[in-house]
Amino acid sequence: MRGTVFAILGLVAAPICAAAQEIENPSLPRDYDPVVSFVLPDAALPIGPREIAAIEMSESGGITDIFFRFKTTAAMRFDRFLTTATGEVLEVRVCGYLMQRITVPEQPVAGSFYLSGTNALRGEAIRALWHGRAQCDDFEETLFPQSI
């Protein structure tokens, strides 16, 4: 009887463990657009949905700020990307749309990025890209009007 209970528990637990692994490392069924791209005059760094650990949004008075937390490998790539870029102009793009242009500071924030001054609709579109619910082609041009 005890062996039967353990066998049943093993059959039930295996799919649960597999589902937990998929949540931790999702298997996206198609190629997905980068959620955000960082562009320097001579280089670009796209960050895809699997490379982002969290996206947090804060809205006040119709202005939305977005905070990206990158997973370890993407955080290291981002940090290396900015290491030699101090003083250069960095463009932050989503679906080709220029979201922000900043000068890279001497001490960039490691492993994360803060995007300020957008709106809630764009923030939700960015989350949809992150979750794999949308691609850039799914958005109307009015959401990201200057896409290239």
Describe this structure in words.
This protein is an alpha+beta fold and 148 residues long. It is 32% helix and 32% strand. The protein contains 3 helices and 7 strands. It has helices at residues 2-24, 72-83, 120-131; strands at 36-40, 43-47, 52-60, 63-70, 89-94, 97-103, 112-118. The strands form 2 sheets. A 4-stranded antiparallel beta sheet has the order 2-1-5-6, covered by helices on one side. It has a 3-stranded antiparallel beta sheet with strand order 3-4-7. A hairpin with a 2-residue loop joins β1 and β2 (43-47). It is globular. It starts with a helix and ends in a 17-residue tail after the last helix.
Largest sheet: 4 strands, antiparallel
Helix and strand element order: HEEEEHEEEH
Shape: globular
Residues in helices, as a percent range: 25-40%
Classify the beta-strand content into a percent band.
25-35%
Number of helical elements:
3
**Can you tell me the residue ranges where pLDDT is under 50 for at least 5 consecutive residues?**
3-29
Distance between the termini: 65 Å
Secondary structure category: alpha+beta
Largest sheet strand order: 2-1-5-6
Q: Rg, please? A: 19 Å
Average pLDDT number:
81
Can you count the beta strands? 7
